[in-house]
Amino acid sequence: MIHWLETAAQHRQAGRPFAIATVVGTVAPTSAKPGDKAIVTAEGELIGWIGGGCAQDVVIEEALECMQTGRVRLIRLSPDVAPAPNDSVKILAMKCESGGTLEVHIEPVLPKTKMLVFGASEVALSLVKLATELDYDISFYAPDMGSADLPEGVSIFDNFDDVPRLDSNLPSVAIVATQGNGDARALQGAIASEARYITMVTSSRKAAKLFGSLEKRGVSSDALEKIKVPAGLDIKAETPAEIAVSVLAEIIQKSRTGEMAHTTKMTKPAADSEKVKDPICEMIIDPKTAAGTSDYQGTTYHFCSLHCLETFEQEPEKFTVAAEA
């Protein structure tokens, strides 16, 4: 059996998203205990242990959503659906016959945001140094830069032409900070990268002239309209370092509001239209992963656990009448 920790390390190294689900609280009876862990992959696979069938599908659904938004979530699965104590807790009904309560902390683990910085200006150098502290995956494009004291781990390129096309599903940003030295070529490189967010350190007036020239040379007007100028939040920045701070502050703001969220398609266990309700506990489940089925009067019923299946088969008429009511 592959341990969840091994799978997490493999996904981390390969740059694949996943979420860590940790049981942080229980009210008996539950099969899970505080400290139990599992990971949920982007394909909707749960590896590890956070409880039985009643909990697994719900945790997978919530984990996939966390991977989309990049936000941590605490969920409480309980037969008691009293209001949440605060906004950080999401209460979900769990009507399994066991009657237990389960609290699960879900933390998404996403690849680093890819950042492309263009230009050998003081602003560009400040951006690279500051962004390293924020744990971005940085590529620095700067022809004729000469020697520079750059942080370890920054990928350095001496041209604007060999810019790879980025994965459009992953968070990425391109910052053009050439400031008059190769503006057009750098901007074309940034556009070619198809970064999710592109911005340029320049005035609106200079940008308008540059964009007009590039459009005449065949650059798409749609691509140019997506470029944010001037770069950064208006904090009255004056020095190169202050400008770099304003640019990074804007990028952080965009990422926190979801504008650069992870968009890799997460595979849910089944489309909503394919799911069915367990007639005993009323949990919504995927028929393909149901713990068992029972045929009664020409209808196939699916169950989240063997307990629910056994309960149904003792008095099937009781539960089918309730379901039809």
| SSE topology string | HEEEHEEEEHEEEHEHHHEEEEHH
Rough outline: elongated
Helical proportion, percent range: 25-40%
Q: Are there runs of 5+ residues with pLDDT below 50, and where?
A: none
User: What radius of gyration results from the CA coordinates?
Assistant: 26 Å
Going by CATH, the homologous superfamily of the largest domain would be: NAD(P)-binding Rossmann-like Domain
Number of domains: 3
Taking the sheet with the most strands, its summary is: 6 strands, mixed
Q: Which secondary-structure class do the elements indicate?
A: alpha/beta
The CATH topology annotation of the largest domain reads as Rossmann fold
Question: Would you kindly provide a written description of the structure presented here, covering whatever features stand out?
Answer:
The protein is an alpha/beta fold. The chain folds into three domains: 106 residues, no CATH class; 143 residues, NAD(P)-binding Rossmann-like Domain (Rossmann fold); 53 residues, no CATH class. 32% of the residues lie in helices and 23% in strands. It has nine helices and 15 strands. The strands form four sheets. A six-stranded mixed β-sheet has the order 3-2-1-6-4-5. Helix 3 crosses helix 7. The two termini are 44 Å apart. The mean pLDDT is 85.
